[in-house]
Design a protein that fits this description.
homodimer, alpha+beta, Nucleoside Triphosphate Pyrophosphohydrolase, Arc Repressor Mutant, subunit A, two-stranded antiparallel sheet, 9 strands, DNA-binding
DNA sequence: GCAAAAGTGTTCTTTGTACACCCATGG
DNA sequence: CCATGGGTGTACAAAGAACACTTTTGC
């Protein structure tokens, strides 16, 4: 049985959730993937696959699930979240084209990769309810308004700004940078940065997450 | 890279949580495991490994995590829960001995399997908070007292019987069988059976689970 | 001075938690 | 008749959800 790694990479841009895909030789698009990784850890292989396809490196990855493909090959799938603004993408060697696709308007993918994207999305949404996933999708400094916008994209619904502020600040997942940014019209917003810690958006989401959720944090 | 499957099998017996281990040739104990499964799905290979080692079949399995072992082999780990009373174990071909070990008093295991057991346990405890895992660890018909006892073992703390009853019944995860069982002294208890559905023991646990938790239900 | 986004507190409802008593049986 | 486990309901605490108004800027 051959072993492969495949990475579902998500970003939030222009009010939408997007997936990173590349084209190597033929016409079919593919997730960042690597064939039999020789004497490398799976995690390294996944990071390598992303770098090889897009030039992006230093991104945290989380193992998602291991799919078998007709009993002949196993594909160890990973999830990665990046801020597209901070990490510009460019085709690596042997890569014809890399780009972001809206998650709900993907081209035909290589065999079995739809399932990887679908599961990555499910996991991402589940994590939304208890982990500060948005900080991985935002620049170093960001406003609470931007952060809320990311959550609204991930959850597909509007959030109450007052409760959002209160919950995020109470959870201690962000800290004030002291700086302020005037973003055109409107009162300037304070800029925050990540401070670690966990976060749950609201109880309704938590319940939903539980209902579709199971796992744990990966070992190691 | 070679592919293996390994299964962490848990049961609750005599007020303790136990793990199924077997010995094949040498002196070292091992989880049910199978080498390169030829043209079989991973799930089938995991079920086969359990049957091969212990004779037990027809048990639901859930994929846990894929570990890499020094970049040479990947081990796809599974979690299984069984009622030891309903599924007696016996050594399969080429198996010298199979038995249950208390989870906190395991012998030396084959390379890397401690991590599989540890992670299986973590996942099992996390699932406790939102899934009716106890029904997999109980006979067809059981009393709420027995069910509560299983949860108390998994959680390692006492539960309030009144709240437990209310929550379990409200969640609709069990249904009355109409039968009653006199278990020695005390008022006879009604017998219930599983009715599907989800269940969370209590909010404190839910929070704890969230804090250590991440995943989702596996695909498919 | 007005449109637009940021920032602040309070009330209400739901959920969870703690807790006291009666019931049915075996010994 | 009493010890043992089964079964029921209620009062209190905590968390989440809904909601109105003031502040600071660009135009």
């Amino acid at each position: 049985m051959r072993v492969r790694v495949e990475v579902a990479v998500f970003t939030v841009r222009d009010g939408g959730l997007e997936v990173l895909l590349g084209r190597v030789g033929g016409g079919t698009w593919s997730l960042p993937a690597a064939g039999p990784p020789e004497a490398r850890s799976l995690d390294d292989a996944a990071a390598g696959a992303l770098e090889q396809m897009s030039g992006v490196r230093g991104i945290a990855m989380e193992q998602l699930y291991t799919f078998d493909r007709a009993g002949e090959e196993v594909a160890v799938a990973y999830l990665a979240l990046i801020d597209a603004g901070r990490h510009p993408i460019g085709p690596g060697a042997e890569v014809v084209e890399v780009r972001w696709f809206p998650h709900d308007d993907l081209p035909t993918l290589a065999e079995g990769q739809e399932a990887v994207v679908a599961y990555g999305l499910q996991r991402l949404r589940a994590k939304t309810a208890y982990a500060p996933v948005a900080v991985n999708l935002l620049p170093d400094l960001f406003t609470l308004g931007e952060m809320q916008a990311v959550y609204e994209v991930l959850l597909g619904r509007a959030l109450d700004a007052r409760n959002f502020r209160r919950d995020v600040l109470r959870a201690g997942v962000v800290e004030e940078s002291g700086e302020v940014r005037a973003e055109g019209r409107g009162r300037p917003a304070r800029l925050y940065r990540s401070a670690g810690g966990r976060f749950a958006v609201d109880a309704r989401e938590r319940r939903a997450a539980r209902a579709i959720s199971s796992g744990d944090d990966p070992p190691a």
